[in-house]
Structures are given as structure tokens and as C-alpha cells.
Amino acid sequence: MAITLTVNDEEVTLDLDPDTPLLWALRDHLRLTGTKFGCGIAQCGACTVMLDGFAQRSCVTPIGALEGATVQTIEGLDGPEAEAVQAAWTEINVPQCGYCQSGQVVSATSLLREVPKPSDQEIDDAMAGNLCRCATYARIRKAIRQASDSLEA
Amino acid sequence: MHPIVKPAFAPRPTRRGFLAGTGGLILGLHLAPQARAESSAPTAPTPGAFVPNAFIRVAPDDTVTVLVKHIEIGQGANTGLPLLVAEEMDADWSQMRAEQAPSNPQLYANAAFGIQGTGGSTGLSNSYMTMRRAGAAARAMLVSAAADLWGVPAAEITVSKGVVAHGPTGNEASFGALAEAAAKGPVPEDVALKDPADFTLIGAEGITRLDARSKSTGQAEFTIDVYRDGMQVVAMVHPPKFGATVASVDDSEALAIPGVRAVRQLPSGVAIYADDTFAAFRGRDAVVVEWDESAAETRGTDEIVETFTAAARTASLVAEEAGDADAALAGAERVIEAEYVFPYLAHAAMEPLDGVIEWDGSAAEIWSGMQIPTTSHATLAGVMGLGQEAVTINTMYTGGSFGRRATPDNHFAAELANVAMAGGPGAYKLLWTRENDMQGGYYRPLTVHRLRAGLDGAGNITGWVNQLANQSIMRGSPFEAMMQGGLDPTSYEGANDLPYELPNRRLAWAEMRSPVPVLWWRAVGHTHTAYAVETFLDEVLETGGRDPVQGRLDMMRADRPRDRAVLERVAEMAGWSGPGTGDRRYGVAMARSFGSYVAQVAEVEDRDGAPHVTRVWCAVDCGLAVTPDVVRAQMEGGIGYGLSSILGEAVTLEPGGRVAQVNFDGYTPLRLPEMPRIEVSILPSAEPPSGVGEPGLPPIGPAVANAWRALSGQAVRRLPMRPA
Ligand code: FES
Ligand code: FES
Description:
The structure holds 2 protein chains of 2 kinds. By secondary structure, chain A is an alpha+beta fold. In chain A, strands 2-1-5-3-4 form a 5-stranded mixed beta sheet, sandwiched between helices. Chain A has 2 domains: about 1-70, Roll (Ubiquitin-like (UB roll)); about 80-150, [2Fe-2S]-binding domain (DNA polymerase, domain 1). Chain A is built from 5 helices and 5 strands; from the N terminus they run E-E-H-E-E-E-H-H-H-H. Chain A has helices at about 20-30, 80-90, 100-115, 120-125, 135-150; strands at about 1-5, 10-15, 50, 55, 70. Chain B has 3 domains: about 15-215, Aldehyde oxidase/xanthine dehydrogenase, molybdopterin binding domain (Aldehyde Oxidoreductase, domain 4, 2-Layer Sandwich); about 225-295 and about 355-430, Aldehyde Oxidoreductase, domain 4 (2-Layer Sandwich), CATH 3.30.365; about 300-345 and about 440-710, 2-Layer Sandwich (Aldehyde Oxidoreductase, domain 4), CATH 3.30.365. In chain B, helix 5 (about 125-150) packs across helix 6 and helix 11 runs parallel beside helix 12 (about 410-425). Chain B is globular and about 85 Å long. The chains are: A alpha+beta, B alpha+beta. The interface between A and B is large, with 59 and 64 residues. One FE2/S2 (inorganic) cluster sits at the interface of chains A and B. One FE2/S2 (inorganic) cluster binds near residues 44, 45 and 47 of chain A.
């Protein structure tokens, strides 16, 4: 069954088993490899993408449910929040191994789109689902704050 | 990985003596192209490029690419090594690029190991002089090319931020403009290095990691991101118990899944070949395997702990001894004792083990993140029956390692080669699931410590005995040859050569055996020795009526000024005035590891009956800090990784031998809300750079435990602190 959806502003048709997780459709079939695999069970956040405007774990999202949906991956993430987040991420040297960071950046962007001036608690809540084994968490907090400030300026 | 790693793989001297003497560099335009032809450079040098040596490439567009011989696993090798080159070349930081060097032990051996490898936090220390000399030589060649071109004395030429200039004539040229001419010039025999007082990049703040942007935009390419034409994805089913083997396979259901191409039995388990990852993972779930468990570990964790504890109590292989500890304990006014149990730990790096292999029957190309490419190379060639020259390895960005990708037995390289052999010529991506990774062993060794201390009437420590039991990491590996007197230093490092005056002391080890494979895990032995020593010492000091900081300082050996300095510094940072009395308590701990000295103070509160760490102060002496921000990042990461383990990580075996944890739901690493605020102070030092990837970790566990004991009255002696 072919499913048509919008990925990074382009309409794509996926003729795959409807149970195929969005993660593997993106990676194996659309070759959008910025979105990563870490656990496959919605525990680590490495696979986070924007689905119809909200951060979502693509590893547990079957494409069968996505007819007409709009997906933004790290490759297509744009707008002032995304730019501010990525600029802060680079300036503060957030990434270490970098593997979790696509997911972190998508989650942080999603947070700032909804809550431009998040409190400490709101940052903690929004980012708790994204594991980073390199423990770059302190810098993630700082970068979100810096991105938020730069958006306000 | 441990740094004391040399003789087992000493490389043959190369015909040009590349590694002769002090790891000196033979510069040669002729050397680099040859080296490249023999190996797998990720990209070919642009025509017209200046390739002064195996480490540096100057392109006509002014970019300077440094081939980094250490795998970038997050520790900043792709920033630190180029920075050393840029400093001596007087390049501008913005023109620098990093590329992973191919597997080539002759060119890129780790001076500490004699083979190409990354581990033991040695990356920067052993490259410090090599990379600087490479940069200085490249600079000299550019200068001499400019001197010829302009007809002026080389001595009058200056270089700054990537611009070569001659003041008197006003001539100026970029590196790129001079590249072709420089490539034709002779290679300097000897080059002068900068006086450290003239450094502009080494030690500077505001250096952006070369990989920061690509890793924030999803562009950095990891092994999992490699796709080859016609590539199949391969998933593995491994034995459910360590030491079990395949008895029989029923592949009928797996083969019925659309996209599953084949199911093959390999020495390490059962491989499912498929058109894509989803099909491979479904096939993995559908294949039915019977196992032969006759040689398997069937003990559960409780039984193993019991055995190890009994062994620790009678441990007799002496690793260190001074004075007469037994007499001191016998004559002590008071004897304190405690036993500590540390669980198996999984590295659980975010990118599960993976590798891509493509072969045509006579040659193979591999894409992976291997921390010891030299031995992986030999394993791949050996399993495939190919000459080493027919195998090339491309080192990719790697989603963490923490030691996991430095396996002396090269089990993953062997599995990858077997996947290719069983599949026939073609391209394959072997991708472990999180479950493969979590349950696959190669854990931090389960360890039991038994400590005893004797006190005199005044509260002074008169005797100290530490006995411990765990499996050896070196045993059964190529490193076994280095075990002297049957001792594996990675089992107890950090429990010996303490900074404290303990005239009557003994450290003894009992080696345990189990089919559960064990491996170096970020900071290796120090992960448990620092905890056992520094929490026990804290209790003993308290019993003797001593303050944790002053008590340690009073016992400090005169020949350990660097330990003293970090402890004094951290006490000052934290405004230390004892463990405190309110809702927030303070604990201190220190450890020297991988050549660096770290002391930390943790501020801890009680959150729902469990410790919550609010702040950490960290003082580090790692010699000269080449990139201070990378040092801080590694301290933060080490603290986070260590805190993660002591709070909530354990791999346990159920009775019968199955691993209880499957994925990140049962094995629970630290998440962002639990990350403390961290303040790092780097002590100024002119000593050569020492490790930073691991040394941030050892003190955090005991610092937190000491604070928690002050708060709760409970001494945590079985980890983790917050059982799942
Ligand atoms: S891979 Fe989706 S949450 Fe881990
Ligand atoms: S940067 Fe390595 S896992 Fe987050």
C-alpha cells in the first residue's frame, strides 16, 4: 500500500509495509540519515523528528498512520528556532560523539517553538526523553537558554 | 582502554623508520602519496595539493586537512590534533579540517601502544610532539617556497593566521597559493618548535570543535549512515546465555517475511540477511534457535557475588605491599572493615555496534568505528583469507564507545567478516540492536572489594588492607602476555600507589573466571577502586575524628604535590567547610588516573529517598590543557557517565544465567533532569598533556556517596545506589 506524505517540504510516496517504522523509511528508503537509531522502543530520543509540528519518536511511528502527514527531519529543520538552536549548539560546543544530537536539536527546537522562554523545569521536562551517553546535558541546558535569549533579542 | 600496552604488537620498523626514536616524523612528499596508495584514504588529495607528510594536506583553496590517527568518539581528537598542527603552522583556525586517517599501523601507530589505537586517554599526549613537528615542518616548507618565489631570505618571512608575508617587499600569499611550490621543495630534517610562551591556539579559549556544526545539523556521517549499492542489512541473534552455542535453527518463519533474503549460522550466532533494516529486525524476532548451554554461565548475579565475595576475603595474590599490615591491624586500637559490590556495567554507547563491509571475492572494504584498527584489520583479513593489503578500513564517526569498540579479541570485526563470507561477495551492513548490545557482554567487570583499616588511639591509620576479586580483562586477550606475576593491573589500578602515607599496607587480588566477557569501560579499574578507597577512607577519617579534606591533606605523601593541589583547589572552589548539616550535604573524593589528577566535591540532596546531585566542583590537573573547553567537556562527560553508573546502572544475570536488562527501559542511564551543575577548574601546568577522556569519572561516585552518607547516615556499599 503506497502512502503519500510530506517530508522536508517534498511530497514523497512510500510503497512499503504499513508497519514499517518511520525511522527506517526515512533512513533506508529516503536516505535521510540524520535521524538516528538508538533503542527502537521510544526510550532514547535519537530518532526524534517533527511530525505535524510536534516532536515524535519515529522508531515507534508506523508509516501506515502517516497518510497526508508532514514530517521534518534534522535535514529539513528550519525557521528561527532551529537556526538559533543550531547556532547555540555549535558555539557552546555541545556535541561530543554527536550521535544523539539530531534528536536533541529537534526536541529543543520543538520546545522553543511552543515555549519561547522555557523555565528550568520546562527544559528538564522537554528534554528528559533524549538520552545522551556522552552526558552533554549541562551544555544542552545552556544552549537552549542561549538560543531562547537570541530569539528574544 | 588501558595505557600500559606495548610489546604485544610492536610494529616492524618501516623502511623509512617512520616511528624511529621519539615517534619522529619522516617528512616526505614521496612518503605521503605512497602511503595513500597503499591504504584507504577517505578522499584523494586534490591535484595541486601540498601533502607535506602523512598527517597534513594543504589544498589550493587554503584548507588544511589533518588526518587524525585516533578515532573520534566524542573526546575531541578531531579538534585537538588539528589544533596542534595549526599552532605550529600559524594557520587560521577557520581553515582547518579534520579527516579520519585510514588504518595504517606503520604511519599512524599510537606511540604508547606501538599499534594504531585509541584508548587509555592517550590520544593527545602521544600526539603532542608528533603533530606539532608535522605542523612546523609544513610551515617551514611553505616559507621556503615563498622565499624562492619572492627571492628574499626565508628568515625575513613571517606567518600569521594562514598568511605568509614578507614585510620589506610587501609580498603576501596564502597557504593554498604556495601549496604547489611547497610540494616541490625539500623536506626539512629538523624543525624548531614554538616556545610555549608564543602559543596562540594551544590553551586558547573560544575554539569551536571542528565537528560541532556537522553534528548539530545531522550531517556528520556515522557507520550506520553508510549505504552501498545492493547492500543487505544483517541482524544477529546471539546466545541468550554467555558461553552457549547454536544447536539448531528453524528459519522458516523468518524466511517467510518479505525482504528477508537468508538466514545463516555463524560462529557467534545466527545472522538474518534482508533488504532493509525493518525486515532484518523482524527476521531476527522470527527465527527460532535452540541453544547448547553445556558450557554456558548459568549462575545468577547473587551466586556470582557470593563466590566473588568469598574470594575477596581470602585474596592472596599481592599487587602491592609495604610494612606489616597484618601486625598493624592486630595491634590496632580499632579495626574498621567494609565490603563493596560493583555490578557488571554495559557501555551502552548511543550507536549500537555496527559495520559495513563490501567485498568482491578478492578485496574487501570496511566502514566502521574501530578503536584498534590495526588488530581489527588483521582479524578481518584472517577470517576472510585475504592479504592485509586487500583489506581497507574507513574509520567513521562513532556514536560513543567508552571502551566498547576497543575489543582485543576483535569479536565484532570477526563477526562482520563472517557475515560477508557466509553471504558471498556483496555489501552488508551488520547492525546490532540495542538488545544485542545490552545483552552482549564485554562489561565492566563485576568486582568485590574488602577493605580493612586499623586506627590507633589518636585516630591515625596504622594499617590498610584492600582485597578484591574480579575477572581479568587481559586474560585470554593478546594483552595477557603483559600480565606480570599473574597480575592484571586493570583489575586493581587506582587501589595501588595511593597518594596517602600508609606505611603498613597490602593490596591483594583474586582472579575470577566466568564465560561473561569483560572489557575496559571508561576509566577501567578506577571505576570501582576510587569508589572503594575513597568512601572507605571517608568513613575511617570520620571514625578518627578527621575532616574529609583536611584529613586527606594531612596524610598526603610529600611526593604527590599534584594530588594535593587539586584537592586544595576543589576545596577552595566549593567553599569547603565540612560535609554540612542541612538538607544539602557535601562529599569530596579524588583520584589520579591516566596521568591526570582530579578532585571533586558533590552537593547532594534527598529526592524521594534517593540521592539527587545538585552541584559538582571539579579541579583537574591534566598537564598542559591544549583545548581547555574540550577538557571541561570531558570532565562534564566523565562526571555524567560516572554518576549515571553509580545511581542507576547494573547488568544482572538471573538465576540460570540470562541477562535481565534488555534495553534502555531496564538499563537506565542518567537523563537531563538528573545532571548537576558542574564547575571545572583546570590547574595551570607546563607538564605534557595527559588524559582527559577518563579521569573525570573516578571521583564522582565516591564524592556523591560520601555526601549521601552525611545526609542519610547510610554508607552505600552495593551499587547502584538506586536499584531499578
Ligand atoms: S530509537 Fe527511537 S527512541 Fe530510541
Ligand atoms: S553526544 Fe554522544 S550520545 Fe550525545
